[in-house]
């Protein structure tokens, strides 16, 4: 994926989804002739399927929510009312991990062990999902110390999986 493509796709999709939700446009049937007046919708239809780009965006979203919630938790961001939305997003995204590695996406950002050791990889993903659910559970209980421990557990789970299954970043 080219530099900036993911952010371009995200921006186009967000604008398009908002307009569709408002009932302002229907993206079905957009043609090249529509590019002048309905450029967003035409561009959405011309984007190729990109499971690796999608995986990266979901992972970045998870990382962003974990980082933002960490700042709230250690009182470095004055938005405690945002905590619930970050924790909910973390729990949801944590469950989606198992879907992010379709066959054919093994050449980008992953080690071959994901596919040669599928049971070990599935177990690592399950630990991350369980850690994300545990964070939500502890958040709902409201004990700051237990929430911090749960967030640490989740971070360690992510790190362990990355160390074993993610290709080195260049």
UniProtKB/TrEMBL annotation:
- Pfam families cross-referenced by the UniProt entry: Cytochrom_C_2
Task: Kindly give the InterPro entries that the UniProt entry links to this protein.
Answer: Cyt_c/b562 (IPR010980), Cyt_c_II (IPR002321)
Superkingdom per UniProt:
Bacteria
Q: Which GO terms describe its molecular function?
A: electron transfer activity; heme binding; iron ion binding
- The parts of the chain that form a coiled coil are none
Give GO BP annotations, semicolon-separated: electron transport chain
Q: Which SUPFAM superfamilies match?
A: Cytochromes
Please state what the protein is called.
Cytochrome c
Starting at the broadest rank, the lineage of the source organism is: Bacteria, Pseudomonadati, Pseudomonadota, Gammaproteobacteria, Woeseiales
């Amino acid at each position: 994926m080219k530099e900036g493509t993911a952010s371009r796709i995200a921006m186009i999709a967000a604008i398009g989804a908002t307009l569709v939700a408002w009932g302002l446009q229907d993206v079905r049937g957009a043609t090249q002739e529509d590019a002048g007046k309905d450029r967003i919708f035409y561009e959405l239809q011309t984007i190729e399927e990109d499971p690796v780009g999608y995986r990266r965006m979901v992972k970045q979203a998870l990382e962003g929510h974990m980082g933002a919630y960490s700042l709230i938790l250690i009182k470095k961001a004055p938005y405690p009312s945002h905590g619930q939305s970050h924790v909910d997003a973390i729990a949801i995204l944590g469950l989606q991990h198992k879907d992010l590695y379709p066959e054919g996406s093994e050449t980008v950002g992953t080690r071959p062990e994901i596919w040669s050791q599928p049971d070990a990889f599935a177990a690592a993903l399950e630990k991350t999902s369980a850690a994300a659910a545990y964070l939500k559970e502890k958040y709902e209980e409201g004990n700051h110390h237990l929430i911090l421990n749960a967030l640490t557990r989740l971070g360690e789970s992510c790190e362990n999986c990355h160390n074993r299954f993610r290709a080195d970043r260049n």
